[in-house]
Write a structure and sequence with these properties.
The complex is a heterodimer.
Chain A (H helix, E strand, L loop, with lengths): L3 H5 L3 H23 L8 H22 L2 H25 L1 E3 L2 E7 L2 E3 L1 H20 L11 H15 L4 H18 L3 H21 L2 H11 L8 H14 L11 H4 L11 H34 L3 H25 L17 H19 L7
Antiparallel strand pairs in A: 1-2, 2-3
Chain B lengths: L9 H32 L1 H10 L2 E6 L6 E2 L5 E13 L7 H12 L3 H11 L8 E4 L4 H9 L7 E11 L6 H4 L2 E3 L2 H5 L11 E3 L2 H5 L1 H4 L4 E7 L5 E8 L6 E4 L3 H11 L4 E6 L6 E7 L5 H5 L3 H9 L21 H10 L8 E4 L2 E4 L2 E4 L7 E4 H6 L3 H11 L1 H10 L21 H8 L5 H8 L9 H13 L2 E3 L4 E5 L5 E4 L4 E4 L4 H16 L16 E7 L22 E8 L6 E7 L5 H20 L2
Parallel strand pairs in B: 2-10
Antiparallel strand pairs in B: 1-8, 2-3, 3-4, 3-5, 6-7, 8-9, 10-18, 11-12, 11-23, 13-16, 14-15, 17-20, 18-19, 21-22, 22-23
The chains are: A mainly alpha, B alpha+beta.
Amino acid sequence: MIDRRLVEYFDWWMLALTAAIVTAGLVALYSAVNAGGGGGQSALFGRQLIWYGLGMMVMITAFIINYKSYERWGHLFYLLCIGLLIAVLLIGKYVGGSKRWLAMGPMSIQPSEIVKLAVIIMLAKYYARVVRPDGLQLRELVTPVIIIAIPFVLIVRQPDLGTAMVVALIAASMTLYVKIKRGTLIGLIASGTLAVPLVWMFLKGYQKQRILTFLNPDRDPLGAGYHVIQSKIAIGAGMISGKGFLKGSQNSLDFLPEQHTDFIFSVLAEEWGLIGAGFVLLVFLLLITWGLQTAQRNRDPFGTILAVGVTTMIAWQVFINIGMVMGLLPVVGVTLPFFSYGGSSVITMMAGVGLLLNVSMRRFMFEK
Amino acid sequence: MRNYLESVDTDWFNQRLVGVLVAVVLAFTVLSIRLLYLQLFEGRELRRLSEINSIRLQDIDAPRGMICDRNGTTVVDNRPAFNVYIILKDAKPIDETVARLGQLLNESPETLMATIQENRKRGGYTPVLLREDIGRDTMAAIEVHKFELPGVQVRVSPRRHYIYDTHAAHLLGYMGEISQEELQGSPFDDCKGGDFIGKFGIEKAYEAHLRGKRGGRQVEVNATGQVVRVLKTVPAQPGQNIFLTIDEELQKRAEALLQDRVGAAVAVEPDTGRILAMASSPAFDPNLFVTGMTRDQWNELVSNPFRPLENKATQAEYPPASTYKIVTALAGLEEKVIDAKTTFYCPGFYKYGNRAYRCWKKSGHGEVDLVKALAESCDVYFYQVGEALGVDRMAKYARAFGLGAATGISLDREGKGLIPTSDWKKKRFGVPWQGGENLSIAIGQGFNLVTPLQMASLAAAVGNGGTRYSPYVIEKIQTADGVVTFQNSPREDGKIKLHAENLALVRQALWQVVNDPKGTAWQSRIQGLHFSGKTGTAQVVSMPKASDGSSGEIDALPKDHAWFVAYAPSENPKIAISVIIEHGEHGSSAAAPVASALIQAYLGDNQP
């Protein structure tokens, strides 16, 4: 029943790189939640371990099922995710002024994380059918725009600008990857640029304020601006060799806000210095390159585009999150894959790796 | 199925991937350069900053909006309060610092340490609030010794101040600490635990306007936690100021008149619905809620049988008693049950079924027409009007005057009162309406319940010729810079359809109540200023009787409630008033003089 080639072609490298990152992530999280003599947060580490247990099961499920089934059933998964996003707006939990979570018994899930995978599968399914060497035309872009716009609007409504933007960036990367006709592309860019001032005119005052703060955290020195200052101090203070495990003072003294979610890279860089942070950057780079390698080795357009989608998801989040904590990019709520605390993020990333393993080990089987 | 390989081949995809790879490598190069820059180039300086943990965030509290009367006199503002905080990580050595601070605060170090232990937060850089509102002298002493007190900070924050203590307390309301449930709610997004928010009265109803927006600053501190540099500041935005419709002088007068009594007085402008005064007695001092009260003070407030925390003008519901005869009279005239010439004979009681319903005047009023019946408050006359009308027709007119429904004034927990109908009784008790009950309703007893505010509105509507205005207490709201964000204007709730001659007849009777020697309020008339009104004496149902049924000494207390409603001047009134004095016994002797004094106070100078 099980094809022997599946075992033979299992992608041990991908698994090893993931394991390395997950380990580094758990070490950093342990520091982040155990700082300053404990407090109420130490339990988070245990819960994250449970999430990784679940994540492992999701990953195994994701690579055992032939990925061609995802192509066939992707739209159902997509509809389910859209349903969850609508449910969030209707019955979601309010946390800190936005509704992002759905309570599911003792746990709560964040559908905006999972919907990224649904968008990737839907787009891969569509593009695999219409891709042409000379690139896509405008009318072929109508469907993808609808596929993206629905979750995008629903996520913006929560409001969760960061995640909405990540969804848009992943989709844009995949679209550019399958190529758009040169003329169409130029037209799109031009009209997009022209639309910006027009849209701006129609925004309400507070919406403009939000976008300006989003672009320049210094406008909000008590929130984002302060977080970035503290985060930069923590990272820089790590210097070459770091302050050592559990010795980061910025983190341990409660100076870093949300150090276990969005700002976890700062904890890592403070305690392990350039050596640790550089190592993590390197492993991320390897994982992403290996994801692209997986895409390259697969001969089936759906598998290739799917692998590109998952890889760009990881790449964008790594780039935005680390850029943000180092003060290069605006502060938006984007998690660092495999590092940030949170079940939905862990499961989404593990499922993503599962898909990559799936595409990788079935690279010669698409003819069936 | 279509063969994909006809359109694109693997090589084509591989070419596309090169672009992606280049982009990824570029992005990681940027991240690496930034990391190198922070950790190598700026590392030493950032390490230094991290070791003294020198960048702190401090709150700047927003001053709450002020409350002023119609003339702009401030009645509620904010005063500076000095609070002592300690930052544990900076306060080293802790024992010495606390001991020294204890001397200055006149407090034992043990008590202070106990407070610290109770409130210590994770980390130790979060300031722990030690003592609130320490007063200027103590503050000065701490500032002088600040170098012996590392980690100790005195911060000033605005604190609510009710300038005239108990003055208009029920109207203005009070503040209290925000609760856990309130913190979860979206209207309190920018609140933190420990914040004070409006809990009652205007403070609560206009919380969103009064509360400003908290600001803050990023500061750099030295090793002892003293601020050496302010990096960035976001100023706090003060709350908006509220201007009331209340006339300060009249309000003070009303409170003085109710002093040592239990009851309420409400005055409205008949042509607009503006509340000119709203007093409720006994009152409380809202300042106590700000500074925190002792257990005894709190117990005294909540267990006081005279309910000082209740706004009796809007929340308390009483039987309207004879003041309700205004409604019965108008209903009788409009429904053509009686006219100006209808007379009944009052021998001092009225027999209905096998029971005799008594008139308050034992000897009886003799032959009475409507004007006399109202002026002298003859019960027998109205028993017969009520019997002829029935409860439902009376309820129709009572409702038209706004009785039995909240007026919609923007104050907390407004009472609705109760105007019964036969349907209501069937639903409520499952038994049909009894004919005898019509008689009680006609003279404002039975199930009837009204609030003093509703009765003031009724007086206003009778006074202005039959127009109902929604009563309101807020004239305008403006920002600290004087930009008006809300300007109230009179809102007509509709006209009560009454025939002019019927209204004129009732108004003539109400004039006689005060200005005819036989009228029940003749004692309260004002020389040279004609006003009209109606007395009422509400039976206190729970009045204890001596066990043998005789009126012994026990039923001396509690006595009946005294009512008076009025408008003045009689023609073209400028003020309408309702007064209730709990256990005041007679409307004529207890309530009418209060209304009369208020009318004199208000119209004394403004007389036409």
